[in-house]
Amino acid sequence: MFRIAIRKYFIWRQSDDLVYQAWLQSASHRYKDLRSRARAKWEKKNQLDKRIGKNVWLSWIEEWKTPECMAKTEIKRNNRKGGADVNEYPATHTGGSSSARKTAALLADDYTRDPFSPELFLYTHTKNHDMKTFIDEKSAKIYEKIKALRDERSRPVDGSSTPRPVDENQLYYDAVGGRNSRNKIYGIGSSQNLFYAPSSNTIAHISNSSYPNSQDYEKLQTELEVMKERMKEMDAMQQRMKDMENLLARMSDNQNQ
Q1: Is the C-alpha dihedral spanning 13, 15, 16, 18 positive or negative?
Q2: CA 172 to CA 161: how far, in whole Å?
Q3: Contact 99/194 with Cβ under 8 angstroms?
Q4: What's the Rg (C-alpha) of the chain?
């Protein structure tokens, strides 16, 4: 007979906790996005998402039909009209009664990937979604600023001929001036949490100031690789723990025989 010593505790590194918190936030956003896409298909195309179980579907539909949920939907619809019950004001976007989150979900189906905030803005602020005829001068100026920032930040550095990678969501955030006094980001409505963290001081990107230079970019790449290695270590440790549990279970079965 031999004994195997197993620690009954595990000390998490601070960086691991940051990874876990980032994962929780991402999972929350993905769940909201999944519901939004499913609801958009159900309401606009009368299609059910086959990934969703029947019981879950029924619970979601019951929730969407509650007076509270319907009231919130109506409030958001009126807000998208400029706060009026009738069309007294010029349209602020061309998304109709659909929320920006639903529109983003539909675009994701078309693009087979999640859209970037400039793409959503361009789609919802051009007439008939033609991607070139803006509904007003303000929208046109914002998109021109986005293009100017993209040209500036993608410019090669240090004699390189390769354009720098550009964070499209960061471009939009900077072009519209970030968040307003109510912590809202202009032009993307209810979808802003798909692109940006909910905190008023942080956004879900590399930086909340200027785009990183080449040295900062290399440093971030190195940190990312280190984080990936640590996640691999965590996966390996979890596998070792499972193997240990299986071994103990077999030993226990042998003793009982």
Answers
A1: positive
A2: 25
A3: no
A4: 24
How far apart CA 214 and CA 104 sit, in angstroms, is 32
- Using CB atoms within 10 Å of the CB of residue 143, give its burial: 0 to 12 exposed, 13 to 18 middle, 19+ buried: buried
Given a cut of 90, whether residue 100 has pLDDT beyond it is no
Which contiguous run of DSSP H or E holds residue 24? helix 14-40
Using alpha carbons, list the distances in angstroms from residue 91 to 79, 82, 128, 184.
Answer: 11, 8, 13, 19
Dist. CA 103–CA 107, nearest whole Å = 6
Side chain identity at residue 24, one-letter code: L
What average pLDDT does this structure show over 117-132? 90
pLDDT tens per residue across span 35-88: 888 888 887 777 787 888 888 888 888 888 888 888 887 777 666 555 444 444
DSSP secondary structure of 58-91: HHHHHHHTSHHHHHHHHHHHHHHTTS-SSS-S--
| CA proximity to 84, closest of 188, 182, 92 | 92
How many CB atoms neighbour CB 99 within 10 A? Answer: 21
H/E segment holding residue 208: none
